[in-house]
Amino acid sequence: MSTKIPPPIVTLIFGLIIFFSRSLFPIYSFSNNVSLIFLFFGLIILIIAVRSFKKHQTTINPLNPDQASSLVNSGIFSFTRNPMYLGMLLILMSISFKFNILGGILICFLFKIYITRFQIMPEEEAMEKIFGKDFVEYKNKVRRWI
Fold it and tell me: How many domains does the structure of the chain reveal?
């Protein structure tokens, strides 16, 4: 793997950057409901994805994708190959709408680039080695994010 930082920690760091950089950007206020909607959907997507992994009895440890015992490609995984990272991105967007919309959008974009490069791409390489043609077919059918 290219990274040894667990994605939840990466998400926390990016969330803190969004929060603490708010003084650097103009303030725009949104209804708390917008932030809560993004938070709700982010958490729901994360929970559904984790439950799918548990149901298929495969690892959810993103630092050791080579320990995967099953290719999960049903349920939420039939819409996005990375629902956990999508959930994390939605949570970051929730923080952005609450505290720092302009800076938050920029930081969310950087999060997406970082996670794709240092987490998703190495995971996909590992999945292709483990599951071969099945993963390639899945990858060709389902988008990386949404």
Answer: 1
Q: What is the DSSP string of 7-48?
A: HHHHHHHHHHHHHHTGGGS------HHHHHHHHHHHHHHHHH
Backbone phi, psi, residue 85, to 5°:
-70, -35
Q: Give residue 48's domain range.
A: 10-23+32-58+74-141
Residue that is written with structure tokens 């930081």 in the block: 107
| pLDDT tens digits along 61-117 | 888 887 889 999 999 999 999 999 999 999 999 999 999 999 999 999 999 999 999
Q: For position 30, what pLDDT does the model report?
A: 80
* Chain mean position to CA 29: 25
Alpha-carbon span 138 to 50, nearest angstrom: 19
